[in-house]
Recover the amino acids of this structure.
């Protein structure tokens, strides 16, 4: 059934991604591919995996951006010095108003009422690709070998899997992140750790203007000291030298 | 957006087929004429050919029947259901014309209405996508309906000429006017297509409060499904030339030929049939280029992550 749940979903399971902490190591990308190529549904195929034009279906990708501050009049200032690099992991945001669900002609694409996870029933998918067209975030990629649409399942086969240790019952990307930039939880519960994080740090939606109401939130990079302030002082500036070296400095000045 | 050949063929051919069937449903041609019988069969063949073509781009076409199930929410599903429903009155009308040489106004007009609704739902598949700015507008269904009506009436004029319809000038003249109207709508569509984009790299990343966002490193070295599907670029480079080709072939030539046919009618003459056929062929070439541009020029919001 590709109508969205009529009531708000009981839980809103999703990710909170901390753009201040992510170092762009791509460990989550690889962990995601590894888990999901042997987990839910068809394997995540690659085309020409050992050829020159290698490509394949991935459910999570990390972009890297350069953000250059601009004045209010739109003029870009402070070229290299004040620009900062932000690593930006992107996967399905499990939107409340998921356009990928309602456009599906077969009922393969659906949003679960109990926890809000958006999934594809691959036995019903005809591989028309319309859901990927409807997603402004590029969260869906066609598996060219199986001819069905693939997307992040929020590791639905891990998070409820009681054969795993409790610590492992989180999405693979969250479990593997070495810098703890990825967090998993229920964003419908204001007392959950992820909801508190979003409230404290001013977590935001991607492309709110698209009206998709994403569940996943992103935490902004923290304000940074300007590069000029943390630069090594000039070699002949000894104004703050104290103690023995201060005495040496003063003595040598007199000679 | 990637212009899948099967979809371009489908939308133009079925548009022509539905347009022709819609005008036939109004009983404008003499059902006793062999040309009218051929027209009915041709309309059904164009629609069926288009539908078969549209399944070619599917990853699992053997499950295509499932696409009839989600008409409550999905325009693609509605289109599938309506296409099948529309076949019933159209086949009935064709049967009456071919075997009984008569036209039934009730069945005919039901068919005409369903043709319009089916073309509308085809266009809404694209118009409903908020992620593609230029498609997400009422101009999209208007231009699909305009082209279906214009090409359908041009084809009807050709069959009318072959069947010795008299007078021929209302059909040919009407088709010439509809061709001009269809391209006027398309011109309106193109004007709205250049409005500022809804989403930007800044809103896509949420980093606009810091400053201007520029891609430093892409997430993958070679291309992927998203780039291939949403980042098509060939047509953008030649967009102006292609638009001119579409205008000449799709508007100038057929409008002039059809207008000529209306002014100098020569009922049942071979010349008038040839002129009308040339008009239809030229119009179809223009529409194919236009439809190719419709896909190839469309910018998808996801490309904000790759800029």
């Amino acid at each position: 059934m590709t109508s969205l749940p009529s009531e708000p979903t009981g839980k809103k399971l999703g990710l909170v991604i901390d753009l201040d902490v992510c170092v762009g190591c791509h460990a989550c990308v690889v962990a995601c591919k590894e888990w999901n190529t042997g987990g839910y549904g068809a394997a995540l195929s690659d085309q020409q995996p050992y050829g020159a034009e290698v490509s394949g279906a991935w459910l999570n990708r990390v972009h890297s951006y350069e953000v250059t501050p601009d004045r209010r009049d739109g003029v870009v200032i402070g070229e290299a010095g004040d620009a900062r690099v932000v690593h930006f992991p992107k996967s399905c945001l499990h939107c409340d108003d998921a356009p990928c669900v309602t456009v599906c002609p077969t009922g393969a694409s659906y949003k679960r009422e109990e926890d809000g996870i958006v999934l594809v029933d691959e036995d019903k998918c005809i591989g028309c690709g319309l859901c990927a067209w409807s997603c402004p975030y590029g969260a869906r990629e066609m598996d060219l070998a199986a001819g069905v649409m693939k997307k992040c399942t929020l590791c639905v086969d891990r998070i409820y899997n009681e054969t795993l240790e409790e610590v492992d019952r989180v999405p693979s990307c969250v479990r593997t992140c070495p810098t703890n930039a990825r967090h998993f939880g229920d964003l419908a519960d204001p007392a959950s750790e992820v909801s508190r994080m979003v409230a404290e740090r001013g977590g935001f939606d991607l492309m709110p203007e698209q009206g998709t109401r994403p569940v996943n939130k992103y935490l902004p990079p923290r304000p940074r000291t300007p590069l000029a302030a943390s630069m090594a002082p000039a070699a002949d500036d000894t104004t703050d030298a104290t103690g023995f070296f201060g005495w040496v400095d003063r003595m040598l000045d007199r000679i | 957006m990637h212009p899948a050949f099967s979809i371009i063929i489908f939308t133009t051919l079925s548009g022509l087929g539905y347009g022709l069937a819609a005008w036939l449903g109004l009983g404008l041609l003499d059902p006793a004429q062999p040309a009218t019988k051929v027209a009915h069969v041709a309309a059904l063949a164009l629609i069926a050919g288009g539908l078969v073509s549209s399944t070619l781009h599917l990853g699992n076409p053997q499950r295509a029947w499932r696409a009839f199930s989600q008409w409550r929410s999905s325009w693609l599903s509605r289109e599938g259901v309506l296409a099948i429903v529309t076949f019933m009155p159209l086949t009935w009308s064709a049967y009456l014309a071919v075997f009984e040489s008569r036209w039934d106004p009730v069945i005919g007009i039901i068919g005409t209405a369903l043709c319009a609704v089916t073309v509308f739902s085809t266009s809404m598949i694209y118009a409903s996508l908020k992620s593609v700015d230029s498609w997400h507008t009422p101009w999209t269904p208007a231009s699909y309906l305009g082209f279906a009506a214009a090409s359908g009436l041009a084809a009807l004029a050709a069959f009318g000429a072959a069947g010795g319809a008299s007078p021929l000038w209302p059909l040919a003249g009407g088709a010439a006017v509809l061709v001009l109207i269809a391209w006027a709508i398309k011109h309106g569509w193109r004007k709205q297509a250049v409005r500022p984009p809804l989403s930007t790299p800044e809103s896509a990343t949420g980093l606009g409060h810091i400053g201007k966002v520029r891609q430093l490193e892409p997430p993958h070295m070679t291309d992927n499904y998203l780039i291939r599907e949403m980042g098509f670029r060939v047509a953008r480079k030649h967009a102006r030339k292609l638009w001119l080709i579409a205008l000449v072939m799709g508007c100038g030539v057929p409008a002039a030929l059809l207008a000529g046919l209306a002014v100098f009618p020569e009922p049942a003459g071979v010349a008038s049939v040839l002129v009308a056929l040339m008009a239809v062929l030229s119009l179809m070439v223009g529409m194919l280029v236009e439809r190719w541009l419709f896909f190839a020029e469309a910018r998808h919001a996801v490309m904000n992550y790759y800029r």
Observations:
- Chain A has a mean pLDDT of 90.
- The radius of gyration of chain A is 24 Å.
- Chain A touches chain B through 71 residues (CB under 8 Å).
- Residues 45 and 151 of chain A are 13 Å apart (CA to CA).
